[in-house]
Amino acid sequence: MKNRSIKSFVKPYLWLALIAPLCMVGEVLADLKQPNYMNTILKEGVAKGDIDTILAIALRMGITLIIGVACGVLCTVFASMASQRFANDLRVALYSKVMQLSLAETDDFSTGSLVTRITNDINTLQEFMNMLLRMFVRSPLMFLGGVILCIQIDSRYAIIIALALPIQLMIMFLIVRRANPMFKDVQKKLDKVNSVVQEDVSGARVIKAYVKEEYENERFDNANKNLRDTNIRVLNLMSLMGPFMMIIMNIAIIAIIYINRNTLDINVSADIMTAITYITQILMSLNMFGMMFQQVSRALACASRVREVLNCPLSIESSAEKSEDAESGSGASVTFENVCFRYPNTSGNPVLSEISLDIRPGEFVAIVGSTGVGKTSLLNLIPRFYDPFEGKVLLNGRDVRDYDLEDLRNRMGIVLQKSELFAGSIADNIRFGKEDATDEEIRKAAEIAQATEFIDSFLEGFETPVSEKGASLSGGQKQRLSIARALVRKPSVLIMDDATSALDLATEARLLQGIHREMKDTTLIMVAQRIAGIRHADRIAVLENGRISAFAPHDELMKNSQCYREIYDSQLKGGAYLAE
Ligand code: TTP
Ligand code: MG
Predict the structure, then answer these.
(1) How far is the centre of ligand 2, averaged over its atoms, from the C-alpha of 112 (Å)?
(2) Into how many domains does the chain fold?
(3) Residue 83 to residue 16: CA distance in whole angstroms
(4) Which atom of ligand 1 is nearest to the CA of 377?
(5) pLDDT for res 322
(6) Which atom of ligand 1 is nearest to the CA of 529?
(7) Helix H segments across 212-352?
(8) 231 and 364, same structural domain?
(9) What CATH number is given to the structural domain containing 223?
């Protein structure tokens, strides 16, 4: 995938982005003209008591005002259209990139930070663009226009401006320089707040179980306080700008009056008023510069964060080619050739070393081993959740890296160790495995997964709503739905990671019989803790210290593998499972 700059997202709306500043020019010209009219009213009208002139100029003032306001409204409309559309496109692109990220990258960014980037950071960019199209045009124009028109009234005012500007600029520079790093900090603190919220909301059950509300509240409070304090510090700093401007402005007014101290009549007063208005405009627009710098530094911080995700290289990339061989339904062979694997950004002993396995199409292979030995990691390599750093994984004799990623994963039914369901009905959740599955297929998959019994006991059957993350179902029910979701796609390879742990032995046995009967051709790779369920597997791989120590049918392993025998003894002879 080629890298995209943030600028490229502005391109489609360039014409909107050009019209908006043009309208702003109109508004500024109108605003600059007003003090001039005021001056004429005072000099020609009020001083000479000429009501007609007053009315005529007032009318022109009114018209100019209307034109100004109209230009202003149009500018706002175009600027909003451009910035909202730009932000929308960027958000969509960033979201789809986040969906593409490999697990290694999502782990790295953290969920909270990804959410902040998609929401808050892009919002900031949107506000910035809006401001860019309006204030960034308004301030310099106001400034220039004000300076020129003010000096036109009396060239001596140039001295006042020349004295006031450097002081104001200096103050602004000092403030902005201190504020800049704080903005980066604010975004980071926001990440933290989002991370805590995310973790706590999704882990609410555990928090309640351990009565950790207080502790978690504190953790959230801390994150939140941090954010608040940083925000307040920045705002305090920025708010210094206003009072400073007022002081400078008042000194400037005194200076103007001082220059005119000997000739204070109505004509001069009119000039003074106009000059004060212009000076105010000049200083105000200068103040806006300050705000703009602030926005620029905020936007830069956010842009770099968005870019980081947008152009993050994918560690798992799809190979372009689609392969036509073997339609789903018929089993596929899975081969591990000397695979070594360790998680990205970790060091030390690899999780898996020199794994070689040759799983035939349609075979039922079980993987056993003590907890934490790397069973899940081994399965993760087949759908390319991660890539091995040495060796190859092959599907139907072809390196999984040579498959189109979507095609590769579509050939598999994967039941993860932790069941994840989504909000929706039971049928929706099963249909997640195959979008166009008929009701018939869904029921069939549920039947094999031994789920119909409990589904039918619900009043609404397959239409029973499942709450977020499947919270409304029992662990075993969730597992069976996850299995049905994998079965409905009639995969070539069915991967089950300890997916029957919450089922009793009899249900597990019926499930495996069902799969064996209905999906004879499917290759089944199953991690299990309990030997009772998998003793009839064609072959069983024993994983020890990240290596395969034996790979044979049950009877043979009983004779040859000490590790296997130990597991068997601990479970059966020890009386842990009396079902045998
Ligand atoms: P797993 O492969 O998860 O071990 P397992 O599936 O055999 O364990 P269980 O029976 O409990 O399900 O983990 C192997 C090692 O890899 C373990 O030390 C933890 C580590 N690991 C990571 O560092 N990152 C990961 O994302 C995972 C899944 C594991
Ligand atoms: Mg596991």
Answers:
(1) 25
(2) 3
(3) 9
(4) 2
(5) 64
(6) 10
(7) 213-239, 241-259, 266-310
(8) no
(9) 1.20.1560.10
Q: Is the distance from CB of 441 to CB of 501 less than 8 angstroms?
A: no
- In the chain, the amino acid numbered 547 is R
By most ligand atoms within 8 Å of CB, the mutation choice from 103, 377, 567 for ligand 1 is 377
Q: Report the pLDDT value the prediction gives residue 251, as an integer from 0 to 100.
A: 76
Parts of the chain with a pLDDT under 50: 576, 578-580
Enumerate residues lining ligand 1, CB below 6 A. Answer: 343, 346, 351, 369, 371-377, 417, 498
* Residue 336 β-bridge partners: 357, 393
Nearest CA to ligand 1 atom 3: 376
- The last residue of a domain, from among 245, 277, 310: 310
Ligand closest to the CA atom of residue 545:
1
Q: 429 with 485: CB under 8 angstroms?
A: yes
- Domain containing residue 486: 414-490
SS3 letters for 183-242? HHHHHHHHHHHHHHHHHHHHCHHHHHHCCCHHHHHHHHHHHHHHHHHHHHHHHHHHHCHH
Q: What is the pLDDT of residue 580?
A: 42
Query: Which pairs with CB-CB distance under 8 Å and at least 24 residues apart come from 153-159?
Result: 153/39, 153/271, 153/274, 153/275, 153/278, 154/259, 154/271, 154/275, 156/259, 157/256, 157/259, 157/275, 157/279
Residues 167 and 211 in one domain: yes
Structure confidence at residue 325 (pLDDT): 56
Shared-domain flag, residues 207 and 296: yes
Contact 161, 147 (CB under 8 A): yes
Please name the residue that has the structure tokens 């499972």. Answer: 577
Residue 515 inside a domain? The answer is no
What does the alpha-carbon distance between residue 305 and residue 297 come to, in Å, rounded to a whole number? 13
Atom of ligand 1 nearest to the CA of 375: 7
Task: Indicate the length of the chain as a whole number.
Answer: 580
Pocket residue to mutate for ligand 1, from 339, 343, 376, most atoms within 8 A of Cβ: 376
- Biggest CA-to-CA distance, the chain: 120
CA distance 467 to 451: 17
Any domain includes 519: no
Ligand 1 atom 11: the closest Cα is on which residue? 371
pLDDT of residue 537: 93
Q: Are residues 192 and 119 in the same domain?
A: yes
Q: 10 Å Cβ neighbour count for 401? A: 17
- Check residue 490 and report its DSSP letter: -
β-strand pairing of 523-527 with 364-369: parallel
**528 alpha carbon – ligand 2 mean position (Å):** 9
d(CA 164, ligand 2 centre) in Å: 70
- Cα-Cα-Cα-Cα torsion 253, 254, 260, 261, nearest 10 degrees, comes to 150
Query: How far, in Å, is the centroid of ligand 2 from the Cα of 578?
Result: 25
Closest ligand to Cα 369 = 1
Q: Find all residues with CB under 8 Å of 213, minimum gap 6, and list them.
A: 207
Domain CATH for 486: 3.40.50.300
Which residue matches tokens 């003032």? 61
Task: Say which ligand is closest to the CA of 370.
Answer: 1
CA distance linking residue 537 with residue 524, whole number of Å: 9
